[in-house]
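Students often ask why we bother predicting the structure of a whole assembly rather than each chain alone. The short answer is interfaces. A chain on its own may look different once its partners are present, and contacts between molecules only exist in the joint model. In this exercise we take two input lines together and write out one structure for the complete complex. Read the inputs first and try to guess which parts will touch.
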Amino acid sequence: MAYSLVRSVRSDALLRSTFLSVPLLKSFSQDALVEIKPGEIGLVSGIPEEHLRRKVIIYSPARTASQQGSGKVGKWKINFLSTQKWENPLMGWTSTGDPYANVGDSALSFDSEEAAKAFAERHGWDYAVKKRHTPLLKPKAYADNFKWKGPPKTAEV
Amino acid sequence: MGFGLLALRASRTSSAINRSCFSTSPTLLISRIFASQSPNPSNRHSRGIVSTPELLQNAEATAEAPQPQEIHPPRTPLAGARVHFPNPEDAIEVFVDGFPVTIPKGMTVLQACEVAGVDIPRFCYHSRLSIAGNCRMCLVEVEKSPKPVASCAMPALPGMKIKTDTPVAKKAREGVMEFLLMNHPLDCPICDQGGECDLQDQSMAFGSDRGRFTDVKRSVVDKNLGPLVKTVMTRCIQCTRCVRFATEVAGVQDLGMLGRGSGEEIGTYVEKLMTSELSGNVIDICPVGALTSKPFAFKARNWELKATETIDVTDAVGSNIRIDSRGPEVMRIIPRLNEDINEEWISDKTRFCYDGLKRQRLNDPMIRGPDGRFKSVSWRDALAIVAEVARQVQPEEIVGVAGRLSDAESMMALKDFLNRMGSNNVWFEGNGVRPNADLRSGYLLNSSISGLEKADVFLLVGTQPRIEAPMVNARIHKTVRATHAKVGYIGPPTDFNYNYENLGTGPQTLLEIAEGRHPFCSALRNAKNLAIIVGAGLFERKDKDAILSVVDSIAKLGNVVRPDWNGLNFLLLHAAQAASLDLGLVPESDNSIESAKFLYLMGADDVELEKLPSDAFVVYQGHHGDRSVYRANVILPASAFSEKEGTYENTEGCSQQTLPAVPTVGDARDDWKIIRALSEVAGVCLPYDNLAGIHSRISVVAPNLLRVDDREPTLIHTDLKPDCQQKMSTEPFCSAVDNFYMTDSITRASKIMAQCSASLLLKK
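Now the answer. The structure tokens for the assembled complex follow.
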């Protein structure tokens, strides 16, 4: 089915080429070859314009202090700085006026800083990148527990 | 292995038999059926509790089976960890699951696995505490070792072949997990740790679907550790992380292990509270739900929370924190890793001040009527009145004071606004008279917080880091513990959690040291890296310049300021203090408040308003109805640090930014926006109307504030200071912070902080 679709598009283009003026078509095909300009993806995706000019923060979430697991550490995320929230008077649930309120938290995750930057650029967002803090591994030994650390010192001199 | 999988296997074998019916001769079929019924343990489908059936087979068969040569993808250390090589020659190579890694000599097997990117399950091991090796969860198989090895306590040896995912290792961990779960209650659904519990996570991998323990589970009486830490001691697995944290990091010998065997329990020996300013961290390091947050108990589940990585403003350290919010409410604050500032810990004030963000908030612009009561008005009316009054008074009668929690952007806007009104009487409330804002090295912690670990002698002058900046104190404690560094202290009697010498209480002692008459001078002269830490509480003294010049001469005596080491440090008290001095918030006249007619308080609650003329007009812009509101004529509500983007510079000169986690309360606005709007109404419009504009203004005044996470090196000043003509008074130093738990408007509004100061405050 996909193949037939492609074919129909092709025949359509052929058909159109006979009717359309040549310079316009030329500009079309050139556009297809050039790189995507910043902000263009957001524009053609039909995202409202006010959401194409927002400020976002690209960051790599730190490990949860209470958990050892590091499976989620090292991913990069986008924080949309979305605080348009209020408690809905009807049920007390949280309402938001921002379609991106929950996107950065749950849905978007990137393997590298560059991928996140490229994504933000394509959507035309103004981004700032937060430095990622990593732990420093120093040699440790069980034997340190029993090491002689000099004569015992008195508290007050 | 569940029932479903078993059923699937059974049907597979039967279908194989059925298929063979059609293809092979009947005699063969019969022999197959018999073979499947023979008592071969490997084919029996009994429900075993272990999930490693390959171990039940002949050991020789598995050993001789050809190991397929796997091609491993390049591995990176866990969580992007950097490996510190104390001596580059002492590097050894070990093999983790066949993958070679180079590690410094002396690292443990567990650390080698971490470098190879293999996460070893663990309960008792914590990278910032000493090694206990008592939970046995980190067992791995090491080639040529007869038994599984506890990787956390075993030093890695050159050429060691470590196998982390073999059946032997898995079986060993499953055995440990079964014993751990034997006495652990099945109350995950009502446990606050549920969802972020190490025991829960690891039982998913190594736990069985049922237990063989039929006896009664042991029960342990809960302990009362104070208003911050909730205990459910039956959940405890005796990893002793909290005991080691209390002794090694917090420096209090409060917690310990009592009893033996199944009667073993964590406790405080005698009934008492845990009196440490870092006690909240035991909540994080507890791998189970035995120690949880008391104020957060049953308030939310952690998967409902939205995390925002931001900065703490309750002291000048600028600890890295994560604000967890649910909807428009801050639910909790937990630490975030930053090796250079707070490692993985935060103070109790940082962790539990969040309930102050929900109380006493100013949510509407208000004007005090003739009857003395406040009336809510619109922003337009409030700004119009403030602008009207500001235009009527003389320029030199306008005074602006920035508060402890102000961000750099709003302080810049305040200074610009007042300067445009013709006044230069703008200052920061904790800096005292004529602060030294000329040289950055004159007010910063020059050796940096992590650099304090290099010091071997400390001289604390009029500062009590334990209550002024607990994270700096934790570094000093770490250094004293690791290297037996000497600590000398000049100031009022206080309680430190490490060995120190109280040299004296006031400037007299300082003078004795400077003249070389004091016995501590020999320690100063022999010190390789002397760190002098001067408290910012001294900035408010009248004889500040004289004291600082004496400190300078001590610094010369100890050769403190060198190209490779600058140990002359100033420990600031407030989050906004360093940025205020960088931006030059220095008043023109010393006693501007006595002649003020128009006082603009931007979150300033500790200004001495008694000296203010009674006819002065006071504008209070801030987020909490705190001390200064009683005197205010107009209130302009602003947003708190959890609700705005702001730049803060910490005491070591590292600028960091907060991010908004929750919406602002009521009709409040960001501080700089209010001043920008007011400037327009007053007819002196400021030339910026967004954050980028105000940042470009800051880049002219103090460009270092915009380089986030970066420490601008300070100039070394030795002979730049003019000679001091001041006379030093003999009045002893006083403590800069009376109550550790209540230092600013947020913490003063907090109920938890009030409980803490009632029950935990260190008795003097």
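Check your guess against this: DSSP finds five helices and six strands in chain A.
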